[in-house]
């Protein structure tokens, strides 16, 4: 059997990782400013992470959710402590799309309505409901287009108000900062309006924190920067530092009914061990504070260098937009300078999503290298 060829892969074979570095099969060392798109939150192969999952594997790898798994309670408690959302409840699944799928479904159970609002350039996943609210024609199969998805222009308050007047809205889903769409920030008044309209119309405010959450922007959920409180937060990417975990944090106003949500693998023993280890490291090593410090430094320097059309982002979620496609820069950074960076659906935007323990010295190496690369292109 061969692999189904769906990924445009670069010809590099990483075989080892440590902190913000990876090594390829030929022994070349790379600085990782992409974290495998925001997945590597506490750094590659962090010793505490490795120890926790190795120990758990020796004890018990899996049993179904029809037994008590004490690790789930521990995970939920720790997540409450680190995020500050102690009164929310946790449901565990395995990916970001599943998290959004469950959140949308839960909203509909809660208020008995069906229509879901999302926004242009948003990305919420590749399963049917998630795909229906995703604005990317490349990955939306016709069979998945449902009448219940309403994709509105991003940051357009009038369009939002109008939709609430005309339709029975079950939920609004929005990324705190659009990731794949090119690091686009919502206007504070826009996101506050979403919170207000959801409250007034018994709709559920779903914060997609799959990419922008988990401490990446210096606050636990990037939505927290806008002083709003969502009814459901969806999480995945950084949650397991490479171990597949997804989850939704649910406001206490939404009550659970047996059987309404479920997952075979969700919340298994290995996933919990990985998830708890990530939160312990985030807390012990003050990674949210580091994301703020190093992120602010990067953003300020990038703006000061005057190399880009626009620099957008908060903390360690940064988009650098140029007047031209970034493909050449990105390729040079990777092959000639051994630095991983990311692209976005906007071809002119370079996307940075490094591990949260990136150091200022490593950030400086990137800034200097980028400057050199720009001179050469
Ligand atoms: C990656 C992503 C998803 C989908 O996550 P998967 O784990 O790939 O299913 C959903 N929402 C956002 C904002 C994402 O970045």
Task: Describe the SSE topology.
Layout: E1 14-18, E2 21-24, E3 29-32, H1 35-38, H2 47-59, H3 70-83, E4 89-93, H4 96-111, E5 115-119, H5 128-132, E6 149-152, H6 157-166, E7 169-175, H7 188-200, E8 204-208, E9 232-235, E10 246-250, H8 269-284, H9 287-305, E11 310-314, E12 317-321, H10 327-335, E13 339-340, E14 349-352, H11 360-376
Parallel strand pairs: 3-13, 5-6, 5-7, 7-8, 8-9
Antiparallel strand pairs: 1-2, 2-3, 4-10, 9-10, 11-12, 12-14
CATH topology of the largest domain: Aspartate Aminotransferase, domain 2
Reading the helices and strands in chain order gives EEEHHHEHEHEHEHEEEHHEEHEEH
* Widest beta sheet: strand line-up: 4-10-9-8-7-5-6
In angstroms, what separates the terminal alpha carbons?
41 Å
Strand portion: 15-25%
SS field, number of helical segments: 11
Outline type: globular
- Name of the CATH first level of the largest domain: Alpha Beta
Q: Care to count the β-strands?
A: 14
Bound small molecules, deduplicated: pyridoxal-5'-phosphate
Give descriptors for this structure.
377 residues; alpha/beta; Aspartate Aminotransferase, domain 1; Aspartate Aminotransferase, domain 2; seven-stranded mixed β-sheet; four-stranded mixed β-sheet; globular; binds pyridoxal-5'-phosphate
